[in-house]
Specification:
- This protein has 18 helices and 13 strands.
- The protein is an alpha/beta fold and 409 residues long.
- The protein has 2 domains: 223 residues, Rossmann fold (3-Layer(aba) Sandwich); 157 residues, 3-Layer(aba) Sandwich (Rossmann fold).
- Helix 7 packs antiparallel against helix 8.
- 44% of the residues are buried.
Length: 409
């Protein structure tokens, strides 16, 4: 072994000190950092500082701290209003206490890497420390808001268009300031590359908890499930389309079919769509069991970025998926192999009916989906990739395969 290779190997085995800064506590809801940090906490010292919505920070990190924005934070956020490079969503989660906590942690903690999740949290890190930041942007959020604009009401369209411009400026500035940027998909890497052509971008797909999301022993073959955080605008738009235009067509052919819409914080507009055959559950602790008990999973997203966990989790449960081109993105989803893709209501409903009619086909597609997720989205190998990114940021060169991946974006 050469001296250079030996040094790189010793460095790759070093125990690092990592500060995680995020907009939500890592949890089964904020699942990407939850799975990654749990997998790496035995290798490294990880301290967690986040905003909180009431979700407890426990079982992760050596120094979990969470902050809830208050009235004074809302007033302080107004100072950013004239700065068109500060997104409104960053202002909405301003926390002076969290800013102080991050600043003191960086000053006193001797951290090798500052791992920041999402655009909403990057503002908490002082500009002078951002060269040490591994910025897990996850998605190109400006692209998300640009796509979302046509699907909003007239007042919201103006707001979304304005926010898309603010986000693009913010993302461009972030790309030039941080040490490394991660996204979940190649389409998001492409979107951010247009904002920062020379940014240190890498793709790190979403992991899936293959124990929590696994095939069930019993299945209600006439149940169709749609999952996701229902307060999120893309899921809200999708759920409305599903209830109003797709589901009546399914019911016309399958009167016994039952629709489950499961996810935290469903808005009033969705709760009003409840019927005997349409159940809106709200938050479900054991989401894996609910998905695994369904006959078909759907992801009728009209617009999307990143990799959709709802699709991956259904596939992990060996449940066939009917989805849209937008939701599939660059996921290796095989039309007719893992499920079906349709972009208009009639075709979408027809494909749901195909799977309700043919249990054997549904089973074959479900097993193929489980195999795909096991091969491409298991936590361990993806956590190893994140660990290499940590060490690259500390000075170990990227592998040749990683460089080729980024150059191909």
């Amino acid at each position: 072994m050469s001296r250079r290779a030996g040094c790189a190997r010793r460095r790759s085995l070093a125990r690092l000190r990592i500060l995680y800064v995020g907009p939500h506590p890592p949890s089964p809801i904020a699942v990407r950092p939850w799975l990654f940090l749990r997998a790496l906490q035995e290798r490294h010292r990880i301290d967690v500082v986040t905003l909180t919505d009431g979700t407890p920070v426990n079982g992760l990190g050596g120094l979990p701290r969470a902050y809830r924005p208050g009235v004074m934070d809302r007033l302080a956020a107004l100072r950013h209003l004239r700065n068109r490079a500060v997104p409104l969503q960053s202002m909405a989660v301003e926390s002076l206490a969290m800013r102080r906590a991050v600043r003191m942690a960086i000053r006193d903690g001797g951290y090798d890497v500052i791992h920041v999740e999402h655009v909403r949290a990057l503002q908490m890190v002082p500009a002078s420390n951002r060269s040490r930041v591994l910025f897990d942007a996850v998605d190109c959020v400006s692209d998300l808001f640009e796509q979302a604009t046509p699907y909003q009401s007239a007042p919201r369209r103006l707001l979304f268009r304005h926010e898309a411009r603010r986000l693009a400026r913010f993302e461009a500035d972030a790309l030039s300031a941080v040490g490394r940027v991660l996204v979940a998909s190649r389409r998001d890497a492409g979107g951010l590359s247009r904002l920062g052509p020379h940014a240190p971008l890498s793709v790190l797909p979403n992991p899936v908890d293959l124990v929590r999301f696994r095939p069930g022993l019993e299945r209600a073959s006439d149940t169709v499930v749609f999952t996701g955080k229902m307060s999120f605008h893309a899921n809200r738009v999708a759920a409305h389309w599903l209830c109003d235009e797709i589901w009546p067509l399914v019911k016309a052919r399958h009167p016994e079919a039952h629709l489950l819409i499961a996810g935290a914080r469903p808005p009033a507009s969705l709760r009003r769509r409840r019927r005997p055959d349409v159940e809106v559950t709200g938050y479900v602790p054991d989401l894996g069991r609910l998905i695994a008990a369904a006959g078909v999973s759907v992801a009728p997203l009209r617009y999307a970025v990143g990799i959709q966990n709802k699709v991956l989790e259904a596939m992990a449960c060996a449940v066939p998926v009917v989805t849209t081109t937008a939701a599939v993105g660059d996921l290796g989803f095989e039309e007719g192999g893992h499920g079906f893709v349709a972009n208009d209501a009639r075709a979408f409903a027809e494909r749901i009916c195909w799977l309700l009619d043919d249990r054997r086909l549904a089973g074959e597609m479900g097993r193929a989906g489980r195999d795909y997720v096991e091969r491409h989205h298991a936590v361990g190998p993806l956590a190893d990739q994140l660990d290499r990114h940590y060490h690259d940021l500390c000075g170990v060169p990227a592998t040749e395969s990683e460089r080729r991946e980024v150059e191909a974006i």
